[in-house]
Structures are given as structure tokens and as C-alpha cells.
Amino acid sequence: MAMNNTHYIVLGAVFMLYLIVTISTRNKSRKRKSRKFMEDYERKKENEDQR
Length: 51
Hints:
Elements: H1 6-33, H2 46-49
């Protein structure tokens, strides 16, 4: 009974897709945790909030 390699190819492709997704989400969460994205943010003054 010959073993078909398509199972291994499919599992390898799914694993590669998993690695790509986890690495990209890890990088995005690191960027989010850093304060660089909030550099230009200015809080509204209290007087403007009450209008």
C-alpha cells in the first residue's frame, strides 16, 4: 500500500499559514504595545468636552 504524500503537503501548507499568521499578529501586538503610535495624540481640553 503506497502512502500518498498529499496529506503531508496539505499539513505543511496549513502549518506554514499558521506560522505566518502568528508571526504577523505578534509583530502587530508589539507595535500596539509601544507608545510610538500615540506620539501625535493630543487629549481634548476639558472645556471642549462639555460643549
